[in-house]
Structures are given as structure tokens and as C-alpha cells.
Amino acid sequence: MANFSILVSLMEFPKEKKLYCKKCKKHTSHKLKEFKSGKGRTLAMGNMRHEKNTGHGYMGRYKYVVFVKKQNKKPTFIAECSVCKAKVPYSLGKRMKKVTQN
Ligand SMILES: [Zn+2]
């Protein structure tokens, strides 16, 4: 079990993988690309409401709260079907330190 954390922290992903395509209704080869989220709009209604409600006092919590940030992120990919070019998000749902594609 000790080696398991090392295996998960450094993960190699293939550039192409066979996945099920909902449009073609069969397994086809998909191109995997790393997903990077864009910038959120600052004037969006939800963002304005969030800014209005937060930042006042201790926000209903106890004064001394130890906030621990998670060190790793769950990597997400965008899988593009080679036949119909449909894009689907694809992820393993595991936290990893580094992801490389070969
Ligand atoms: Zn397809």
C-alpha cells in the first residue's frame, strides 16, 4: 500500500483512448486534451451576490478556523471523438500531483 501513493501522484495518460461515444453509439478512439477552466465573469449575478454576502465579520463561523488547502487537484480531460468530433469531459476522479501525456 505504501507504493500506491507514489503511483497515483505521478500519472501518465495516453493521448488517444477508446471510449464510448453517445452520438455514434459505439466505442471509437477519442483524443484526450487537458481541460483548463477559463476566467469567470466578475459581473455575473452569482459572483456579485457572493461578494456581497462574504467578507463581513467571521461569516457565521467560529473565529479561529484552521483552513487546510488541498494539495492536489483532480485532473479533467476533454475527449474528442475522431469520427463525429463530439466533445465529452473525461476524468478518473482521483487526486494527482502531476499528469503527463505521452
Ligand atoms: Zn462519435
Count of beta strands? 6
The CATH class of the domain at 8-36 and 71-102 is identified as: Alpha Beta
Structural class of the secondary structure composition? alpha+beta
Taken from the alpha-carbon principal axes, the silhouette is: elongated
Overall residue-averaged pLDDT value: 83
- How do the strands of the widest beta sheet line up side by side? 2-3-4-5
Which bin fits the share of residues in helices? Answer: 10-25%
The DSSP helix count reads 2
Main pleated-sheet profile: 4 strands, antiparallel
One letter per element, helices H and strands E, the order comes to: HEEEHEEE
Describe this structure in words.
With 102 residues, this protein is an alpha+beta fold. It has a domain at 8-36 and 71-102: Nuclear Transport Factor 2, Chain: A (Roll), CATH 3.10.450. 17% of the residues lie in helices and 33% in strands. The protein contains two helices and six strands; from the N terminus they run αβββαβββ. It has helices at residues 2-9, 45-53, and strands at residues 10-13, 16-21, 26-34, 76-81, 87-91, 98-101. β4 (76-81) and β5 form a beta hairpin. The two termini are 26 Å apart. Residues 21, 23-24, 28, 81, 83-84, 86 line the site of zinc ion (ZN).
